[in-house]
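Section 3.1 - Work completed
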Amino acid sequence: MILRRTLLIASTAIAAAASMVSMSAAGRSRASASPLPADLHLAPARTQLGALRRRAITSRALLEQYLQHIAKTNPGLNAVITLDRDAAREAADEADHHMARTGQPLGPLHGLPVTIKDALETKGLRSTCGSPELSAHVPEQDADAVARLRAAGAIIVGKTNVPVLCQDLQTSNPVFGRTKNPYDDTKTPGGSSGGAAAAVATGMTSLELGSDLAGSLRLPAAYCGVYALRPSGGVVPTRGHIPRPPGWLSSSDMLALGPLARNADDLDVLLDVLAAPAPAEAAAWRIDLPGPKHARLADYRVGMWPDDPYCPVDANIRDLLEQVGEVLRSVGSTVDDTARPVQLPDSDRLFQRLLFATASATATDGGFADDIAAADEIPADDPRGLFLHSRTMRHRDWLRANEEREKLRRQWDGYFATHDVLITPAVPCTAVEDQTSVPVPDRFITVDGKKRPYFDQTAWLNLAGHVRLPAVVMPAGKTDDGLPIALQIIGPYLADRTVIDIARQLARRLPEPVQPPALAL
């Protein structure tokens, strides 16, 4: 089998993109009447797709804009770590020839250049998940979700950086190094979709396909000032995601794949393509997500959970949530800031138990035996044993924990009988200092001047993950030092379009998110 030629970008030396090639005769005749926009790659995905369908620009010309922008922008960020220039150009040319020949697009993403998180396998293109052991791994098959993007006409340009096996809240690994936050290079972009969020924020892609187990989509979105959707559990097929080893057919029961974008409308663009049954089930059924619950923001019943003693948030985020409540009340929405669907400490503890349990699937036999022996030395009621006891729980114990999860889901169902969505903080603070060189046990975050545990970063995001609920993180405004501030919108199971719609309508009424210098038009 002849594999596509791949090219690793050295973060300190990216070769300049090749000159634009000539367009097809049809493309040239159209372009002669109107010059090609030199910055179309910085526009929303919907705008780019419209231009491609109208043949105002060719896919090849748009791709060359992206390649030039990546060459200029990426060295300071190290977000895009592998490029597939030759294959992308070939695919773009094929899309243009198809359009010239038929007048019809290949699909809803016809000719749109996109990048993919390096945790997702891409056929013929190196897919490492930041692990030295996988540094030469070139899959023979796309992850199911990646295959859907290709079938929809997307052009896969390259891969974005992740921490080793996606197991950190910042983005750095021995294969490609550290990705920087696009607003402040001393800060982290978050993890594990840190490269993806930084690439979207700086216009190196308009859409990204990322993954979210413990906030891995939404944390980077919050820190990089972009939008992210963790879809309802089971809506997007997850086969082909690493760290399940290459070749595995199963994935974590807590994993979701979803889009990152620079606005809410573009989340919908990618969700339309991604929402589908796994290929083996596609002959029998399809996914048809309902539209938004209401047309007007005034008609929504909104729950507000602005803070909690279990994971207090800083003043910037409290102020944002207060402003959101004021906006909702001003337009006539029903706002309830007292009712709580669950108790945050109980929900978070169950999340951690299930997370540690699912992570054990890929442990080596020897390593797992060591974990069992170590767990046996810690009393069952000792809080220090939460990780080991969860990781090594018997199947009967997991079944009981899963039953707790189903009861929690029922509590959420009861809450959503009287509320359409719940708005919460996304994170307890804005982007934190990069701590790549600091051992994990010594890392911390700072909230209102006080040191807090490192993993408190995801406590609010964990509300939705294990109970399969859709959740959007959206940016709104900035801190005095220019960092983006974000909030989270959680909805009922399968109400993905409702949480996107709330984000869309709120965005019109809240402060515009700050843009990094690389995206300034």
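Second construct:
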Amino acid sequence: MRDPRWGRTEESIGEDPYLVGTIGTAYVRGLQSAGVIATLKHFAGYSASRGARNHAPVSIGPRELADVILPPFEMAVRDGGARSVMPAYNDLDALPAHAHIPLLTRLLREAWGFEGTVVSDYFGVTLLESAHRVADSPGGAAALALTAGVDVELPAVRCFGAPLLEAVRSGEAPEPAVDRAVLRVLTQKCELGLLDPDWEPQPPPVLDLDPPRLRELAARVAEESVVLLANTGGVLPLGDGGRIAVVGPLADDPAGMMGCYAFPRHVGVEHPDVPMGVTVPTVREALAAEFPGARLVDDPAGADLCVAVLGDRSGLFGRGTSGEGCDAPDLRLPEGQCELLDALLESGTPVVLVLLTGRPYALGRWADRLAAVVQAFFPGQEGGRAVAGVLSARVNPSGRLPVSVPRDPGGQPWTYLTPPLGQVHDASSIDPTPLFPFGHGLSYTRFDWEAPQVDDPAPATDGETSLRLTVRNTGDRAGTEVVQVYLRTPVARVARPVTRLIGYARVPLRPKESAVVHVTVPADAAAYTGPDGSRVLEPGRLFVDLATSSTDTRHTVELTLTGEKRVVGHDRRFGCEVSVK
């Protein structure tokens, strides 16, 4: 994600390529271990569109493409073994992704060794004619896509059917490209057993879509994802008593838990008479169960505390405040919620802000006035209970921000992956410094980090070194610390990000318990795309920061890479191996 105004921010993993790559790779492995082919989307640059507008052109340079956009895809292909890729809707420097031979053939297949299928995005082949206007007919669009490396047209055969047949007969489309695509598709079908004589395309007679074990997993995911951004008033955790005002447009709405591709938000909104089918407790319902001794009211007047539940209603193509085609002009809270929050604060009742959103919103307007801020994004069917658990401390929050939370609603785009001139400086009156940085999140307990030990402070450019860090829970509650490893390159031949994530680990600890975090730092992690377009690794100084966020460093280790400059290929190691013992 490069600009959080983009509506599909809610579907992305975060603003850091290493984070996206590691989570995406694990997702691919999980899906394919169950006998399902995972499809990577959208390849590539879709999240970097001009003005954060869906389907808009992408104008990033080759270095940003190589060092920020492509690594997660490469990791998922090489390390995850992804067997399918979907091109993006956008064009890259005026060349549409569905007709992009350098991207779909030279890079994906020849350089990365991908052997799976490339399947089009919805109407992506048709759009070559109707939107990009690089073809003048369905057959011409089919010829471009097929030649570039697209094997399957989705969702229907508008171009790959009769128009493609005619294009082959006329010589506009090469017949060997058809044979190539057919072979790839049939090979995958054979691998999946879909062509076996005894295969039946029927689901089991009884299909439970909400079994207890998956409900438990949903609860765990939600609990670990909630981020406590601020607790300046010291009001959290809440006690079980008193009058709690629960207000806001999402306080009683299960839609606040779900993104635009959840079935109730994607299809269910077209059929309002059809029940949701699964139980999704709202924040109010969850708070009532979490605090049976408290009285929940609708008005902050006379209340001891106000829980304001604000955020997004996801939807598609303008039918929501977040989701595909629901792009935002700025990062103000939507639908009059800024004014609502102002009014709540003016009441004098301490306000705990709970955000259920698809993107980060600017919160600087209330930075010093809120008692606490809880960011839940779209936490899923168990999200209401997870939020309530964080407010009561039944759940000690351990979520960390995958995106920066801005102070001001303008001045976008901005991510923490920026060179020095992308940060605040005297040549501009705009300060882009976020209110809460990438990686930020608070806990109800305290952690102490001892000084790290380093095996070799001068590894070779083709080598590695190891660090060991002891983390201790010095508080009186069990909790999970998140150790984040960042790399800084003081001097390079191109302007580099000030810092960037290369590793992380969750460290669960009981009170007074400690654990040792082992970090293996490969020299490859310092490679970058140099002036001539090759990925280089040079000798010289590096700084490895052990941190709780991209701006909160606990310890810094200085390394000096020794040996010769190297050109690093696609067999490189992307980041650190981190383990907890």
